[in-house]
Predict the structure.
Amino acid sequence: MCDNLFNNDTIMSTYDDASLIMFPSGYKEDKIYSLKPTDGSGDLTFTRASTATRVNSDGLIETASVLGSEEITNGDFDGNANNWTLDSGVTYGDNNLVFATDSNQKATQTQTFTVGKTYRVSIELVAYTSGIITVRMGSVPQVITTDIGVKTWDIIATGNLARIEGTFGIGVSATIDNVSVKEVITNNVPRIDYTGGGCGKLLLEPQRTNLFTYSSEFDNAAWTLSRTSAFGSGSVVNAAISPDGTQNAEYIQQQAGQTNSGGVFLLYTMTVGVTYTLSVYAKRKEQNAMRIGAAAGVAGLGLFASFDLVNGVIGNVSSGLTTKIEDYGNGWYRCSVTFTKVDATGNALFLYQTDSPTSTTAVPLDGVYIWGAQLEAGSYSTSLIPTTSTAVTRLADAASKTGISSLIGQTEGVMFLDFVLSQNEFSVGTNISLNDGTASNRIIIGKSSSSNKLNTFIQKTTGQGSIVTSFDAIVGQRYKCAISYKLNDIKFYVNGVLIGVDTVAEIPLCSKMSFDSADGSSPFYGNFQNIILFPSALSDNQLADLTGGNKTTFNALAEFYGYQIL
């Protein structure tokens, strides 16, 4: 169940007074829909010129994507579907396509597909007696099973022909309907992320690169096995359902007769002085705990952390490591260690090691399932970047909305933000602002580069009101913040509490909302539960209620405003 915004008594007053409400739910390429206004004038523009993963509402890791428009004309074969070219053994039925021939016959439609792009192809097998039907986009066929129903594939286009054909030399008798081809769009798609359950959150992350070339194929030669029986004697690839819902996790077990720690590792030349984060998803099979780490210390000293895969807690940790364990459900945990490479010796990265083995029996010892390894330069782990042959870079997320002067209070108003910080590089500022497209006129909630404190800042040509909290902004902590502003009357509320006031401030004219300091610096990274703008200042009681714990369900609010989640 989603967290909520207001209590029922407030819906008809405070919420109804809002001019813009963004609660992550509906989205498309380049766009995040706002609940209010409903005419699209408040929808946020989103960019990230690369693919990226998210946790969907079912708790599975997937590539964020949307489908483009329909590429096929008359895919339901209505009115004899003269957009198709049919061989002699293929005929139109009752608004469908009938194959009845012993030879290779096909139905073809030429469209302008982009070679190399991925398309989602679906066909309904209405009736089947014999033979094999294939579908292709260019030269690569995909076999349809003989089960009645809708069949769907993601196919990389190799040409401009959409072709359905009966296999040569086999008696084919089948009826086809509802052919569809749509581009699978992955770039510039917002990520509504459900990590930890509850409501979807808009996930914003910096640019990162997974330096591992094979993130889940530990049987690849890029990985080295040490005192480990990885793919024999019961240790197998595709041994378990991974966090993406596919049976592609691998089972790694200790080799028989070994008392030293064994595992799978990779020799990667790290750069001295750079901070790295190493992570992997792991699940207990027989072994209750595992270790991951790196030869990163002085003279290649190995730094390790132990992770309890039964209770989801961290055990022994070497000095110099920062660790984290996250529950991804179904027994899976994401285990990560952060460290700074100290000297040039020792570059081994251990993704799995048995935790203090003692047995020397003649059979392989216990093991664990692993999947989704990532090495990235940075002080915390970000969402998984899958790799299959080379390092892959996910570009930074960015969101903003211009031309909304009418939705931003120009002489007074409120900006409410509900978010969780993920950025713990505290030497870098992180802000959300109302502005005029420049750093000369802006209203900010964020964290400065000189302090870990949450703060507000108002600038009209020169600096005006500024309020700084007395507590550190903690990564992973949820904050519900509101700045209420009007001439010489600034209030800052956090989690239901009045943090501070400022009585000397002029209000700048603003026309844009952006997830940075207005000039592209100090971008915000984390996740957003919701953003609300009010064109007028609110009372203390309203601000306390808005940022506090009195709430109602999002579904009730959506129903109240007639909003349909897409």
